[in-house]
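User: Predict the complex with ribose-5-phosphate.
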Amino acid sequence: MSASSAAAPLELLAFPDSLALASKVAGLLGVAALPIEVHAFPDGESLVRAVRRAQGEAARVLVFRSLDDPNQKLLEVLFAADALRRQGARSVGLVAPYLGYMRQDRVFREGEPISQRVVAGLLDTGFDEVLTVEAHLHRIEHLGQIFRARARSVSAAEPIADWLRSGSRADLLVGPDAESLPWIRDIARRANRTWCLGSKTRHSDREVRIDLPELPAGVRSAWIIDDIASSGGTLEAIVRILKQRGVGRIGAIVVHPLLAPGTAARLARAGLDELVSADGIEHETNAIGLAPLLARSILEHEEQGADT
Ligand code: R5P
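Assistant: Here is the predicted structure with ribose-5-phosphate placed in the model:
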């Protein structure tokens, strides 16, 4: 796989927190990932320095950074986009394996914003394209509905299924709620596993109630699969039910491990035997590599454009 010669020359720059994955992606694309420097001033402001390899030459330049813990990172990626345009980049894109703020996609209580749209609008001011993985989209179907930039969210079903097939045994895949249906079904089909779905009621940031249907007879082991683990409340609620129903070995796979410190240990105490994640956000649970998916999607994204 390499960047097509007909396409604009590709340059990839990454913030330190995403440099490891960016370097793998760059390696697959036959380019180098250049580091972006961030200086923190004593007053909390950031100064970003993003130096292009070939000053002035027209190119498709991609900034690589996951937007977990997003408030400061959002500003910093926009500063990087500005710096790159000032050096003559033909187009500037953002590769954010995790794209924060997608969950606040409606006014849940009077007086709230639709943060999802605000963040899309902000990123539109700096970027011509946005690529992410498993954006948390419930009330919209694709990112083209909120971005002016060419924006695309790609599914992590293939790398997860590949990982499951590569040796990890479990009788059953469990999705937390109806919203995960198409995704769980796709992973189960690719990995040749049975699956079931729960239904979820969220009472607060950390309190979640899950109801699970009757499990198929003889289930001894299960993988819970979710796009995000944040407070860990969703996984914990499912683990407790599976334990009550006599499932002996329980694992969880999440794409985006936004896990607060201590969450993995709490889940282990609840009875979770193994927690693995994709490597879009660096975390000790990373086991599923997103680099091939991202490299392929970067090439396709230029050829095909945004989600429609
Ligand atoms: C929600 O709809 C998502 O798919 C995840 O289930 C949720 O974000 C997990 O959050 P937490 O770990 O705080 O329960």
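The chain is about 30% helix and 25% strand.
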